[in-house]
Amino acid sequence: MEMFGQNVFNQTVMRERLPKAVFKTLKKTIDEGLPLDPSIADVVATAMKEWAVERGATHFTHWFQPMTGITAEKHDSFLSPSEGGALMEFSGKELVKGEPDASSFPSGGLRATFEARGYTAWDCTSPAFLREEAGVVTLCIPTAFCSYTGEVLDKKTPLLRSMEALSTQALRVLRLFGNTTATRVISTVGAEQEYFLVDKAFYDKRPDLMMAGRTLFGAMSSKGQELEDHYFGTIKERVLAYMKEVNEELWKLGVTAKTQHNEVAPGQFEIAPIFENTNIATDHNQMVMETLKKVATRHGLVCLLHEKPFAGVNGSGKHNNWSMSSNDGQNLLEPGHTPHDNAQFLTFLMATIKAVDTYAGLLRATCASAGNDHRLGANEAPPAIMSIFLGDQLSDILDQIVAGDEKSSTKAGEMKIGVSTLPALPMDATDRNRTSPFAFTGNKFELRMLGSSFSISGPNIVINTIIADVLQEFADRLEKATDCDAELEKLLQETAKKHQRVVFNGNNYSDEWVQEAKKRGLLNIPNTPEAQKQLITKEAVAVFAKHKVFSEKEIHARYEIVIEQYVKTLNIEALTMIDMANHSIIPAAMEYATTVASSINAVTAVSAKLNVSAQKELLEELCDKLAAVSAETKNLEKELEATLAIADLDEQAAAFRAKVFTKMDDLRANADALEKIIAAKYWPLPTYREMLFQL
Predict the structure, then answer these.
(1) Rounded to 5 degrees, what are φ and ψ at 560?
(2) What are the helix (H) ranges across 33-150?
(3) What is the predicted pLDDT for the residue at 410?
């Protein structure tokens, strides 16, 4: 308990160090979303600086989240010159506003390269924290980031906007149910984080891991995950020591890391926190990813957050557990014991179902990336079809609503295991479904489509916005009704009938579901270039603008950024493959072929009667596959050159997917076949067996 939050300027610290009136004013902004009073900035800044300096801090930084998907920071010293000496100073102006160079961050055309000015703005709802690296302690202040002209350049600002939009509309609905005490509705998130660990010695010998974050070559080892012996297995000592330090680092930062375990694939693991307000959960997930990477190096390891670092075994995702709660203590997605007559719960549930069905393309777009294209729909993660799992109890209630006769709820029971010494277990009213992309899991929805390297801001921006939009529609209609109860019953029935198609409780991995989804008219968008187009549809632009989350200019800029990132990612991967083929794989194959040929000559020199058919067969196979690798490398070079010459970004992205990516697969198939026949001492790269099983 002494460790937890010790490096966080949290409300406990603020209560101790701030004047009572200042703390009360700041707390109202944090808890109720009221505008920040600029007059308190100097007092807060002084207290924050003194607290940080006492703990060894010499610098501060505005810590923000640009469109790169990672965090950014510029460090400034507390030192100010004074009569030949120096003072440790930090003003309210420095706390509230920073000015990093914005010219080199992705802007999607919002800013020209020569237009360098950008601003960071203090997000007082997310607490400042201390970070120690290489003996330097830095005060990190979570901030938003915008351009000189006011357009957002980060992932936090639109998230905060979407949270306000959801709160505004959800409160309107709560008022209709007689709630007069709640003043704010907050979306909450718990983000489960999957990752791989590899020995750094192996990582340093793999240019593909260093440049692309995934193995672009690599034959599968004789054993993978088929025995299912890694999942929830005993954690090895080296990994457990790593996890222990990760937990300690995170607990000091106030991150509620709670669960850790082996994941399905060998070398794969998971860490999960407790629920928090969405913007804090987003900040904390960035800290989790940074900490996983930083601590790994101390243990001679490298943490891989790519969605598919190894072909043939499961990739890594990030499960986004989302709910919404009022500040008077209600979880608005809590069904209660009799959900069939819990009208408030059913209203928020139906709003969520309608939002997901109506804006399925938007949710799909937020989960699309070059890395996640390797994972979605690959019998390990939800497919590219958006659907909702409700479970038996709620699905039965949905059927009753459609029929206009909701009278009962399936009851939870008691499970007797059949061994006298084992306790009877309370049985949930419904099972869970790990194949569903958007699954109801008791009092929350779990979006399972995110990639492990993602910032969770994008999906939560969309979830908050689309549900706010449907809640506004519900409130507009119900507020005008003369008989609100009757109108609500009619509204729920209409919504259930129209949007029940998105509910599916079966196996999302099956081919049958793909066909069934097509019959239902559900979207199936297979790749990133197609998925990202959903960001700039007329409907998407309209819903973002309506709730002031993105302007049309801002959302088009984001589309340009993600498509450009996709193109750059595949370009880096293709160039890395060409380099590895030309400088590692082909030379190794030639050297081994020469050795085999020398062996044939040496043996036949002893006696022409000696049987060298095995060597000749091996040499023939080697030369055939070597020629194929060489040819496919040249084919990839030509295709890449032609694709890079395409001027239109959309056409270029499509060509990378359809042509360059295909040539990359062809090259890999031949190189992996070559790996299987080359003697181990000649193969220049650490193998899957070494990387996955030698932790």
Answers:
(1) -60, -40
(2) 41-54, 92-96
(3) 64
Q: How far apart are CA 258 and CA 247, in angstroms?
A: 8
In sequence order, what are the residues at sequence separation of 6 or more whose Cβ sits closer than 8 angstroms to the Cβ of residue 122? 36, 62, 95, 96, 97, 141, 142, 143
| Fold match flag (11-153 vs 162-409+427-550) | no
Whether the CB-CB separation of 173 and 345 falls below 8 Å is answered with no
Q: Residue 359: enclosing H or E segment and its boundaries?
A: none
Query: Taking the domains of the chain in order of start, what are their residue ranges?
Result: 11-153, 162-409+427-550, 567-694
Euclidean distance between CA atoms 32 and 186, whole angstroms: 10
| Cβ atoms of 143 and 123 closer than 8 Å | yes
The H or E element spanning position 10 is none
Each residue of 543-579: pLDDT tens digit? 999 999 999 999 999 999 999 999 999 999 999 999 9
Q: How confident is the model at residue 420, as a pLDDT?
A: 63
Residue 563 near residue 529, CB atoms below 8 Å:
yes
> What pLDDT, on a 0 to 100 scale, did the predictor assign at position 413?
58
Q: Say what the pLDDT of residue 150 is.
A: 85
Q: How far apart (Å, rounded) are the C-alpha atoms in residues 133 and 330?
A: 40
Say if residues 247 and 256 touch (Cβ distance below 8 Å). no
Average pLDDT over every residue of 593-604: 96
The crossing angle, in degrees rounded to 10, of helices 278-298 and 457-480 is 170
- Nearest Cα neighbor of 153 from 67, 69, 62 is 67
Specify whether the CB–CB gap between 189 and 275 falls below 8 A.
yes
- pLDDT (tens digit per residue) in 150-193: 889 899 999 999 999 999 999 999 999 999 999 999 999 999 99
- Helix H or strand E segment including 113: none
Span 11-153: which CATH code?
A: 3.10.20.70
Domain 162-409+427-550 has CATH 3.30.590.10: yes
CATH fold for domain 567-694: Four Helix Bundle (Hemerythrin (Met), subunit A) (1.20.120)
Judge residue 231's burial from the number of C-beta atoms within 10 Å of its C-beta, 0-12 exposed, 13-18 middle, 19 or more buried. Answer: middle
Maximal CA-CA distance, the chain: 105
Taking CA atoms, 251 is separated from 35, 256, 284, 291, 453, in Å, by 30, 6, 11, 11, 21
> Can you give the pLDDT at residue 480?
95
Mind listing the pLDDT tens digit for each residue in 634-668?
999 999 999 999 999 999 999 999 999 999 999 99
- DSSP string covering 336-347: -S-GGG-HHHHH
- Mapped onto helix, strand or coil, the DSSP state of residue 280 is helix
Is pLDDT above 70 for 87? no
> Model confidence at 103, in pLDDT bands (50, 70, 90)?
confident
Looking at the predicted structure, is the pLDDT value of residue 384 above 90? no
The gap between the terminal CA atoms of the chain, to the nearest Å, is: 31
Q: In 3D, which of 594, 586, 590, 593 has the Cα closest to residue 667?
A: 586
- Whole-angstrom Cα distance, residue 141 to residue 126? 8
Report which residue type is found at 617.
E
Residue 406 near residue 341, CB atoms below 8 Å: yes
Tell me if 691 sits within 8 A of 202, measured CB to CB. Answer: yes
